[in-house]
């Protein structure tokens, strides 16, 4: 503890009285309505603790980037937010993940309901092996968001427009989603996620399998989408975090070391470890 | 100190010789296997193709009151021993069905006795010399020839080779396999889906898994004993029927389908499951809408292979009484029936020479059906195979 305090003293002092989970500095341009509140979150794979006492407040309609070296727990943390970790048998989770006043780990919380409000985009584009149209229409139909065919067509078009894909695919909606290029597939997956109108979109290294141009397209898209959705993204690419994120959290060995306004994080990090990572001393 | 190319080449010679030797040995094995296959199929064709032809002779048939009572009287003394006795027995029935025949005499092509058939095909025959001469005379006059044997495909078994056909066995096979598939396809697929997608990974499921794998290797005759003990003796299912045969073969096919389905489910990439969970599918929706459609070609292929295996099975059916003499084509699940391999087995044991070609002919039919089933499986896999 002392060491930590010493580190903090050595760097810039916080600009406000913080409770655990709040960022060191607030992004003055950002929205400060709370979306997800995480308190004392611990997670074990068998006997191996992968997340240690995570406290973080995620704000609505922002892009929050999670950065850190491989194996630091950032993807694991992301998957706690829509309980995708439930699918792994040996996982044990403890602590509070609160959304809309409800604990998502509560026994009464249906993970299907949670995942409707917290969508996800994965590292490798994984469209369903169905037509482009079906990729989008499947989930809204399943959740009874549309009743008529016209409504469904409209929703598909809207989702594809929001994902910036409409002009490229409007003439080939019945072709398989897997026939698109990698970057288009990833935007199709984003369209699929936003089609069910979630509050939060989790992105697990969404551009790591893409070329630089597709990456730039996705980054622009994230910037547009944050007007409607809360976006939490995991990235290995610090420039990307600096470009797209309003807030950045730095994870290391299962702990969240620093949570800060992105500009402050990259210009004047509050902790020594974050500074070392950002300046490329490890990771 | 490095070696020169010449030194290395000298060392390599032995290695090259060894690999050439292995190549020739494996080529030899392939050629040997291919030879066996060619000899087997060739032998079956040579022996079996004559079964698709049957001798008929043209004789005068007189439909009189007398032939109604004593059918052999319908043909002349000379022709009597050349005409199939089985055919003669059918005359009164035909006269009853067609009253206008009464009192007429016609020249008709009638089924010849199997000995005549064998003589015309150039096989060994017990025909006496005078009968042989009579057949020769008929042949010269164009009144004895080999015609396509439709009876082989339309009638059931008979003790007279010229009347015996594979139809009752074929229908029995179809009925039996319908029962087998109806029972083991849904049960097998659902079991595999549960084990693969829903079951927790604990000691119990591991034991179940090991037992299913072992079940696939149990000698098939044991399934016959199980069928006899459980279905016939305990549940009282009528013996020799497609119902009990199908249920017994289902026991045998079940592990094959479970294993094939699990393999197919496992080959669906996890990213598809994650994508489906990610948009808020329940576990059942993930399986029904995404995993099952993708694994269906694999499941179908495995099931057809299992079906083909069940189709060629004889041993368990011996125990439950399906190796039986079934002269009539039955279309009921609860009447006594036989299946194609059992029919072949029965014919192989008949003393008459003419049954040899029936046996081979039956094998040809069975092989043709099996090959088309397997071709169907391959076609289905190719057609529905999708990339993701």
UniProtKB/TrEMBL annotation, chain A:
One Pfam family this sequence matches: ABC_tran
Single GO term (MF): ATP binding
Region (Disordered): 1-28
Organism name: Modicisalibacter luteus
PANTHER family, A to Z: ABC TRANSPORTER I FAMILY MEMBER 17
Keywords assigned by UniProt, alphabetized: ATP-binding, Nucleotide-binding, Phosphate transport, Transport
Range of residues in the leader sequence: none
Gene behind this protein: pstB
InterPro entries: AAA+_ATPase, ABC_transporter-like_ATP-bd, ABC_transporter-like_CS, P-loop_NTPase, PstB-like
Name by which UniProt lists this protein: Phosphate ABC transporter ATP-binding protein PstB
Domain ABC transporter: from-to ranges: 36-278
Matching PROSITE patterns: ABC_TRANSPORTER_1, ABC_TRANSPORTER_2
TrEMBL record, chain B:
Keyword field: Cell membrane, Membrane, Transmembrane, Transmembrane helix, Transport
Membrane topology, from the record: Multi-pass membrane protein
Ranges where the ABC transmembrane type-1 domain occurs: 170-376
Keyword Transmembrane listed: yes
Sequence intervals crossing the membrane: 22-42, 166-195, 215-237, 243-265, 304-326, 360-380
Keyword Transmembrane helix: yes
Gene3D superfamilies linked: MetI-like
Domain of life: Bacteria
Similarity comment: family membership: Belongs to the binding-protein-dependent transport system permease family. CysTW subfamily.
PANTHER family according to UniProt: PHOSPHATE TRANSPORT SYSTEM PERMEASE PROTEIN PSTA (PTHR43470:SF5), PHOSPHATE TRANSPORT SYSTEM PERMEASE PROTEIN PSTA-RELATED (PTHR43470)
This protein's name: Phosphate transport system permease protein PstA
Gene: pstA
């Amino acid at each position: 503890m002392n060491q930590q305090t010493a580190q903090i003293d050595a760097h810039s002092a916080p600009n406000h009285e913080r409770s655990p989970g709040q960022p060191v500095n607030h992004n003055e341009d950002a929205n400060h309505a709370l979306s997800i509140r995480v308190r004392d979150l611990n997670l074990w794979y068998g006997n191996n603790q992968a997340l240690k006492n995570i406290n973080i407040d995620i704000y609505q309609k922002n892009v929050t980037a999670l950065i850190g070296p491989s194996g630091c727990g950032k993807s694991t943390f992301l998957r706690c937010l829509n309980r995708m970790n439930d699918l792994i048998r040996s996982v044990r989770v403890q602590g509070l993940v609160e959304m809309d006043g409800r604990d998502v780990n509560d026994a009464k919380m249906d993970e299907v309901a949670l995942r409707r409000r917290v969508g996800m985009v994965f590292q490798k584009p994984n469209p369903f092996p169905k037509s482009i149209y079906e990729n989008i229409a499947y989930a809204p139909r399943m959740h009874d968001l549309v009743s008529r065919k016209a409504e469904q067509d409209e929703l598909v078009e809207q989702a594809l427009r929001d994902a910036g894909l409409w002009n490229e695919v409007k003439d080939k909606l019945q072709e398989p989603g897997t026939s698109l290029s990698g970057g288009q597939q990833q935007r199709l997956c984003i369209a699929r996620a936003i089609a069910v109108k979630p509050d939060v979109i989790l992105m697990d290294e969404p551009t790591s399998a893409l070329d630089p141009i597709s990456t730039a397209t996705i980054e622009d898209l994230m910037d547009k989408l944050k007007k409607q959705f809360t976006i939490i993204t995991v990235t290995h690419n610090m420039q990307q975090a600096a470009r797209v994120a309003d807030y950045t959290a730095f994870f290391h060995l299962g702990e969240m070391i620093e949570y800060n306004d992105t500009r402050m994080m990259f210009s004047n990090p509050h902790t020594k470890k974050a500074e070392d990572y950002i300046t490329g001393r490890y990771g | 100190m490095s070696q020169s190319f010449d030194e290395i080449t000298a060392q390599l010679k032995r290695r090259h010789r060894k690999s050439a030797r292995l190549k020739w040995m494996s080529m030899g094995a392939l050629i040997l296997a291919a030879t066996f296959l060619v000899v087997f199929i060739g032998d079956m064709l040579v022996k079996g193709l004559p079964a698709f032809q049957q001798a008929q002779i043209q004789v005068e048939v007189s439909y009189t009151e007398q032939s109604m009572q004593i059918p052999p009287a319908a043909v002349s003394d000379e022709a009597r021993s050349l005409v199939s006795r089985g055919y003669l027995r059918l005359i009164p029935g035909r006269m009853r069905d067609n009253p206008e025949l009464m009192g007429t005499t016609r020249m008709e092509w009638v089924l010849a006795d199997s000995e005549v058939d064998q003589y015309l095909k150039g096989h060994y025959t017990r025909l006496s010399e005078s009968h042989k001469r009579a057949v020769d005379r008929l042949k010269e006059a164009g009144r004895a020839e080999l015609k396509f044997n439709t009876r082989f495909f339309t009638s059931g078994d008979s003790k007279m080779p010229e009347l015996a056909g594979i139809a009752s066995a074929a229908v029995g096979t179809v009925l039996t396999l319908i029962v087998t598939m109806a029972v083991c396809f849904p049960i097998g697929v659902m079991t595999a889906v549960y084990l693969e997608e829903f079951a927790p990974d604990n000691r119990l499921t591991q034991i179940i898994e090991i037992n299913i794998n072992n079940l696939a290797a149990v000698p098939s005759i044991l399934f016959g004993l199980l069928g006899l003990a459980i279905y016939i003796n305990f549940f009282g299912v009528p013996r020799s029927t497609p119902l009990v045969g199908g249920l017994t073969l289902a026991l045998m096919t079940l592990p094959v389908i479970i294993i094939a389905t699990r393999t197919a489910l496992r080959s669906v990439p996890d990213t598809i499951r994650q994508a489906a969970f990610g948009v808020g599918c329940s576990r059942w929706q993930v399986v029904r809408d995404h995993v099952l459609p993708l694994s269906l070609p694999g499941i179908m292929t495995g099931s057809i292979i299992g079906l083909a295996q069940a189709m060629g099975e004889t041993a368990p059916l011996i125990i439950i009484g399906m190796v039986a003499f079934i002269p009539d084509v039955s279309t009921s699940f609860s009447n006594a029936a036989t299946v194609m391999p059992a029919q072949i087995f029965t014919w192989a044991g008949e003393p008459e020479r003419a049954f040899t070609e029936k046996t081979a002919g039956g094998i040809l039919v069975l092989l043709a059906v099996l090959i088309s089933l397997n071709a169907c499986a391959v076609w289905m896999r190719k057609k529905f195979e999708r990339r993701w």
